[in-house]
Write a structure and sequence with these properties.
Elements (H helix, E strand, L loop, with lengths): L2 E8 L6 H18 L5 E9 L14 E5 L4 H15 L4 E6 L4 H12 L5 E6 L3 H4 L4 H17 L2 E4 L2 H10 L7 E3 L18 E6 L8 H12 L7 E4 L4 H8 L7 E4 L4 H10 E6 L8 H8 L3 E5 L2 H9 L4 E4 L2 H12 L6 H17 L2
Parallel strand pairs: 1-2, 1-4, 2-3, 4-5, 5-6, 6-7, 8-9, 8-11, 9-10, 11-12, 12-13
Helix pairs in contact: 3-5, 7-12
Length: 359
């Protein structure tokens, strides 16, 4: 008899299908390796437009796609319910990819169908980031998060620091929490090194919690710097919004891209000298570690997560507190050599050792 580990993901935003597949499949691969039973099989249920093609998976586990256009959340719930009923004997674990709606669906369906399956969910961000928004959204997120912690069987944390943080809010649920950062697969970064023609790159979602206001301030300062010839901002919904918020004309040195597939992000990192991160808070900082693996130095806003990153990798992480300090760091680093191949190999070896300990 097969043991299915079912990953369910309800996509509420317009984020790229390939990027979501990438994140889920990497954790699924790690989860399969960690399980002691050799006959575990990971299975995915995702809701996305049916026109998407699945590519870039690290393993060949089955994927069932619920058409996003069919009745939205209600259609997704019935879709998952029918799948669970059909495979009720085989499914041992349900893994939700977010602590809110998807976890609520998993908990309710296992109760309604009386499934023996365990429910797991993942936490990647800080408590204040998971309960942000207007008054109604904050209250709703807080209720859902508390319900998820009470009813789920296991909670995966992206870093040890998150466990210390969340045990303050959920002291009775500490035994459910475990640390497992997603392995970064940095060995891909060390091959096919490219010419570094991008001075500064910023990648990630265009959200306030990523420090967008300060990012724009730094970019405006760099715009007038003669030592900077090319800046890439990836993750901007549209170029016009960036120009409007920067309140200054963009010179030819700026490249503004929308959401890009994960493989393309890696290509940009390999071409870049410095990754700029303005997020007020970081947890494990996976994107920053991937940049380091690509031989790209990191200039990041100082916070708990970036201090941990600095502690793990002293030589190529530079922290700042103010916009002026960030601009000065970037100007100084541009004038110096980037990662050597030997330094890059040492970083990848050390990061792989850290990944192995994160479980």
């Amino acid at each position: 008899m097969n043991n299915f580990v079912l990953f369910i993901h309800f996509n509420r935003t317009s984020s790229l299908f390939e990027n979501s597949i990438w994140r889920i499949s990497r954790y699924a691969k790690r989860f399969s390796e960690f399980q002691s039973e050799t006959n575990n099989q990971c299975f995915y249920i995702l809701n996305f437009p049916v026109s998407h093609e699945v590519s870039g998976l690290q393993n060949n586990n089955p994927i069932v796609i619920h058409p996003k256009s069919k009745l939205g959340l209600i259609g997704f719930i019935f879709f998952v319910k029918n799948f669970l009923k059909k495979n009720r004997r085989d499914i041992k674990i349900l893994v939700s990819t977010d602590p809110y709606i998807t976890t609520l669906i998993a908990i309710l369906l296992t109760h309604i169908l009386r499934l023996p399956a365990k429910v797991h969910f993942s936490v990647h961000g800080h408590y204040k980031d998971l309960t942000n928004g207007n008054l109604f959204k904050r209250q709703l997120k807080t209720i859902l998060l508390r319900h998820s912690f009470r009813k789920a069987d296991k909670v995966r944390m992206a870093s040890p620091q998150l466990i210390f943080e969340y045990q303050t809010f959920f002291p009775d649920q500490i035994s459910k929490m475990f640390v497992s950062s997603i392995p970064l697969g940095l060995e891909r970064m060390s091959s096919s090194r490219q010419k570094r023609d991008i001075d500064v790159v910023s990648v990630g979602r265009w959200h306030p919690e990523r420090g967008i206001k300060q990012l724009i301030e730094i970019c405006c300062e760099l715009n007038s710097s003669p030592s900077i010839s090319k800046i890439l901002i990836a993750g901007v919904p549209n170029k016009e919004s960036f120009v409007r918020r920067s309140q200054s004309p963009l010179e030819n040195k700026f490249m503004v891209e929308k959401f890009v597939p994960q493989p393309e992000v890696f290509n940009y990192l390999r071409r870049s000298k410095i990754l700029l991160s303005c997020a007020p808070e970081e947890s494990y900082g996976a994107a920053l570690r991937e940049a380091l693996g690509a031989g790209c130095r990191v200039v990041a806003r100082e916070n708990t997560g970036t201090r941990m990153l600095k502690n793990d990798h002293q030589s190529h992480v530079f922290l700042y507190e103010t916009t002026t300090e960030a601009v000065g760091l970037i100007a100084r680093l541009i004038a110096t050599d980037s990662f050597s191949d030997k330094s890059n190999e040492k970083f990848i070896k050390r990061q792989n050792l850290l990944d192995e300990k994160q479980i």
